[in-house]
User: Which sequence fits this backbone?
């Protein structure tokens, strides 16, 4: 059964919920926190802050059109409490409501790896097959529905992604690239060729 877990973590006066794929919980333990607060959050810089898990629940993300077990590789919390997840093995992005039920989905042409929020209703999703397809697909959320928008194609692999000040930061197998939101390469910021996968997956 394809599931993910929701953990509520006590961070002083703040409550943070982590939504994690049950099969990927260890390797994705820091990915995609959903922060709910009735007040403005002030992030602490204390690296020794102790977190306490207050609760955990498991939710099934499988839908009827899925042909394989779900593998959640990315999570993005939206302002109204909805959650977007990238289901890598079924090549879909799924929209979850506040009860973590799948209310909409859209398919992408190959494997989705990561996503980053651009606006309150738009995300950029890396789409990569490790052969010929190296893309970023823009997806919008409107009225609880997902729609594919613009697509950017690149000459390098696209795994991890982060958006900051109108720039895209994209990781390839061994490198980190900076692009504009229109896809223009600004520069290769970093590369580590000491092994395979040194640049993959996470952009913090």
Assistant:
């Amino acid at each position: 059964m394809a599931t993910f877990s929701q953990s509520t973590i006590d961070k002083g006066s703040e409550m943070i919920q982590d939504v994690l794929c049950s099969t990927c919980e260890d390797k994705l333990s820091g990915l995609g926190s959903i922060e709910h607060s009735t007040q403005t959050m002030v992030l602490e810089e204390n690296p020794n802050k102790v977190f306490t898990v207050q609760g955990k629940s498991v939710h099934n993300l499988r839908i009827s059109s899925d042909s394989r077990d779900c593998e959640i590789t990315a999570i993005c919390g939206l302002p109204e409490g909805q959650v977007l997840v990238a289901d890598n093995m079924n090549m879909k992005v799924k929209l979850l409501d506040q009860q973590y039920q799948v209310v909409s989905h859209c398919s992408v042409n190959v494997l989705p790896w990561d996503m980053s929020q651009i606006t309150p209703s738009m995300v950029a999703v890396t789409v990569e097959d490790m052969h010929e397809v190296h893309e970023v697909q823009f997806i919008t959320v409107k009225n609880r529905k997902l729609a594919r928008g613009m697509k950017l194609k690149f000459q390098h692999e696209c795994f991890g992604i982060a958006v900051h000040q109108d720039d895209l930061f994209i990781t390839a197998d061994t490198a980190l690239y900076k692009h504009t939101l229109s896809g223009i390469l600004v520069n290769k910021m970093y590369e580590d060729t000491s092994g395979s996968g040194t640049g993959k997956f996470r952009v913090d």
